[in-house]
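User: Please predict structures.

Assistant: First:
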Amino acid sequence: MAKMQADYIWMNGDIIPWEQATVHVFTHALHYGSSAFEGIRAYEVDDAAAIFRGEEHFERLLYSCKVAHIPSPLTVDEWMDVAKAVLRKNKHHSAYIRPLVFRGYESLGVDGRGCPVDAILASVPWGRYLGADAIEKGVDVQVSSWRRMASNMFSPMAKIGGQYVSSQNVVMEAVDNGFSEGIALDINGQVSEGSGENIFVIYKGVIYTPPLGSSILGGVTRDSAITIARDLGYDLREQAMTREMLYLADEIFFTGTAAEITPVRSVDRLPVGDGKRGPITQAIQGVFFGILEDNMPDKWGWLTQVS
C-alpha cells in the first residue's frame, strides 16, 4: 500500500503542517493502545468533497471514547466542522478521513486517566482498500485461526486502538497464507467479521449477516448495505451463522469504510458460488456506488457536501 500523506492535519485545535504533527515516545497510547478512532470516506460529488455518513461515524467515535474513558474534545458537530476544514485545506475532493483521540504523555501507569487527551484529524488520498479490481472481481479469504474478541474481554462495538492487535493477527495470518483477508469466528465458533469488515452471506436468495451479539463492530457501511438490501426488496436476516454457511453460500460480500462493498470469490480456496460477483451483491453495489460516485439521488441523506 502506498504511503499516505497530506499537506495539513488538524491537531489539538489547529490545522498545522503534516510534519509538525508529532507526539512524544512516552505517549500513553503508544505503549497501551489507549485511543479511539474512526475511518470515514469523502467522495467527489459535483466537483467537491462529500462526507459519507459523517455524523454517524462521529457518534460512534464519541461512544468509543466513552467506553475507553477518554473524553472527546469535540462534539459531533464540531468534529464535522473540523473534517470539512481539513478537506478544504488539503484541497481533497476524495479522501479517507481519520480522527483519533488518544492519551498523551504524563506517566507510564496502566491507568492513564491522568494523562492529557490529544486529538488529530487527517484527510489522505486512498483508493480501494482490498485492491483496484476487488470491487468487481472479488477477493480470496480464509477462515482465521484467531477468534474475535469476546464482549466480556473487550468492547467489540467500539473502535479502540489497542483492540486492533486482534485484527492485525487476523490479516497478517491471511496475507502470509496467500489470501487478501481473514474471517474471524466468535468465541462460540459462529461467523463474526473480517479484520476490518463486516460480512454478508447470501444463500438461496436470502441475505444473512451476523448480529451485534456475534462480537462485531456495528458498521456504518454495514447499516447502509442493510438499508439498500431491504429497499430493493431482499429478505435480510441478522442471525448467527456457522462456518459451514461460508461454504454453502451463493454469494458473500464484505462491507466497511475502507472495503466499501467488496465481493468474496473464495473461502479457504473453495469458490463462493461460481467464483464471480453475484447478482445480489452487484445490485447492492449499484445503489451504493450510484449514490456515492454516479450522481444517483441521495435518498437517505447520507452525504454532507463540503462547499
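Second:
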Amino acid sequence: MTVKLSIRNVRKSFGSKAARKTVLDDVSLDIGEHEVVCLIGASGSGKSTLLRCINLLEPVDDGEILLADPDGRMVDISEPGLDPDPIRLRIGMVFQSYNLFPHMSVLRNITLGPTKVLQRPKAEAAALALELLGRFGLADKAAAYPDQLSGGQQQRVAIVRALAMQPELMMLDEVTAALDPVLVGEVLNVIRDMRGQGMTMILATHEMGFAKEIADLVCFLKDGVILESAPPGKLFTAPDRPETAEFLQRVIASGRL
C-alpha cells in the first residue's frame, strides 16, 4: 500500500487549563492511496475533530500529520507556522451544512474556487463544473440557486464544488446527517461514484450499512481514541474490543445496520 496520509500520535484538547477536555488522544492512522476509510463512533468521539485537524482547521497539540507530496515524500503539514492554504488546495472537505453561497447560481458556486484561487480560465472551470454536474445527475441545475434545490441536491452540489478543485484527498463529515432519509441515497450514490473513480477518502459517518459497503478500513473511535480499526468484514462481524461490539449492538437495535 502506498501511504497518502499518515497520522502519528496526534493529540488535541480544548478548554482552559482548569477544564481541559481531551478530544483526540494519541491517534495514529495510515491511509493508503485510493483507500476509503470510515470513522465511526458515537457523537463526541472525536471523528469531526480529526477531520478538522487533517484539514488544518484546528492545530494539533502534539503529534504529526504527514501528507505525501507529488514525489511521494511524506511532509509534515501540521508543523506550526506552515501556511495552510496550499495544503487545503490539495484536500477537499465537505461538511454537514452545505455552505453554498445563496446569492450565486450552482454553476457560480462551483467555479468560484477554480477561477479565483486556482486562476483557471472561466471557460475551463465552467466546462469541468458542467461535466461534474452531469456525472452526478445535476446537469439541469447549473443555473438554479441553492434555495431552489432539495437538501440532497444541495449536498451533491457541495461535493461537486469540492471536486472541482481537483483535490488529492477528500474528507466528508457526516454529509448525510442533515438530510431527510429519502434524500440520503442521492448523496451516497455520489460517494460510490467517487470511490469508483479512485478518490482517496475519509468519511465520518453514522451510516453503518454504507460504511460496511464502501470502506476499505473502518475505525471505531471512543473518547478520542481509535479503539479498533479493521476491514468492514472483520469489524462489523467479529470485533475484537467489547466497546466496539457494544456500540454495534446499539446500532443494530436502532435499525441502522
